[in-house]
């Protein structure tokens, strides 16, 4: 749970910076967020969570 909260916080900061600097506009950003939200309710969500956990575990072992 702690990994997912910190990952959400990190991605939220990245999105905020991209919107503020003009590299990302609001409407495409909202579309991507909605895509991620609905993707989380599909059958592929556990695979994505396992991949993110493996990746963060690999990074922390460096």
pLDDT below 50 for ≥5 consecutive residues: which ranges? none
Give the strand tally. 0
**How many whole angstroms does the radius of gyration measure?**
14 Å
Task: Report how far the terminal alpha carbons are from each other.
Answer: 21 Å
- Percentage of residues in helical conformation: over 70%
The number of distinct helices, counting runs of at least 4 residues, comes to 3
Q: Average the pLDDT over all residues and give the rounded result.
A: 83
Order of helices and strands: HHH
Strand content: under 5%
Gross geometry: flat
Q: What does the largest sheet look like?
A: none
- Helix vs. strand class: mainly alpha
Descriptive overview:
With 62 residues, the chain is an all-alpha fold. The protein has helices spanning 2-21, 26-39, 45-61.
